[in-house]
DNA sequence: CTATATTAGTTGGTATCACAAACTAAATCC
DNA sequence: GGATTTAGTTTGTGATACCAACTAATATAG
């Protein structure tokens, strides 16, 4: 799946995107490790920055089984990064909110990711970065 | 970390690349699941297509602990996808080779990933795809 | 209004996967 | 030849994913 890197001129779109994807994942993994956050925990906190979804909504956003969300939120709650609150409109449901601690952590993490992405793309000119942003922004699905 | 999707025009390079990365990972995860291969198993087989590395080399390529490679290769070997062979030049060392079964599986998987990437990028024109390939190819590190 | 069906989230079971520390066997160094 | 280093494995631990089954709350049907 990952092409022979010596043959850059023949790199397919698939190989280019797959390699880029793993490069970005490697950054997320390293920066996350520095902040004691797994990638999935960082994604969770990222979602919670601007909303308080239900467990079911989180399962949809993250494309995970609801039982996986239970475990993920359990562990984050145990660390004081998130908290569950009752949903007044539905006794079965809970809402998940980020705590101040969690928000601080994800902001720091985001700053470091920005820095590492800047390093990753330092060989591109300003216009090239804009072009990459525009192209990438047109194909990745939205939350 | 993942920006408000309604604000596409203001998407940063970081957010664009992170979202793209997860979109590609989602494809790899789904296609992998269809072929009963985890992402890391697919990466392993991808590396083994054109070389027979040592365990240590695999740890470097995949940026994993050597004990993780032991487990990964154990499970792949148990499924008949790879095999360990002795290294004649170093009694401590083993070489890992893909089997015919493993090669067939990774070829199929790669074909499906190509198809899904084509779907992901169907909104881009031919020249835009070339441009994205070139830009991405210039920033992702090489194996 | 009550019984039945559906939904939200949890629990238990299982497997994969990651790292750290410690171990064994082989190779290297002095 | 003994000490040190290296390659890979083993053990322990924890995170993370899915499936099936469960409980409690809500919605629906009669």
Structure description:
The structure is a homodimer of 143-residue chains. Chain A is mainly alpha-helical. The first copy, chain A, has a single domain, classed as Arc Repressor Mutant, subunit A, CATH 1.10.10. Chain A is built from 6 helices and 2 strands. A two-stranded antiparallel ribbon of chain A has the order 1-2. In chain A, strand 1 and strand 2 form a beta hairpin. In chain A, helix 1 packs across helix 5 and helix 3 packs across helix 4 (66-78). The longest helix of chain A is centred in the N-terminal third of the chain and has 22 residues, at 13-34. The radius of gyration of chain A is 18 Å and the shape is elongated. Chain A starts with 12 loop residues before the first helix and ends with a helix. The model of chain A is unreliable at 3-8 (pLDDT under 50). Chains A and B meet through helix 1, helix 2, helix 5 and helix 6 of A and helix 1, helix 2, helix 5 and helix 6 of B. Chain A binds a DNA duplex (30 and 30 nucleotides) through residues 38, 40-41, 54-56, 64-72, 74-75, 87, 90-94.
């Amino acid at each position: 799946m990952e092409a022979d890197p010596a043959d850059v001129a023949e790199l397919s779109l698939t190989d280019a995107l797959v390699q880029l994807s793993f490069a970005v994942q490697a950054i997320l993994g390293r920066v996350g490790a520095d902040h004691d956050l797994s990638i999935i925990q960082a994604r969770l906190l990222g979602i919670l920055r601007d909303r308080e979804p239900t467990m079911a909504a989180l399962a949809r956003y993250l494309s995970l089984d609801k039982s996986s969300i239970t475990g993920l939120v359990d562990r984050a709650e145990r660390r004081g990064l998130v908290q569950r609150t009752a949903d007044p409109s539905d006794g079965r449901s809970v809402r998940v909110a980020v705590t101040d601690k969690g928000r601080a952590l994800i902001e720091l993490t985001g700053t470091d990711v920005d820095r590492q992405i800047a390093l990753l793309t330092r060989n591109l000119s300003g216009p090239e970065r804009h072009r990459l942003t525009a192209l990438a922004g047109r194909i990745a699905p939205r939350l």
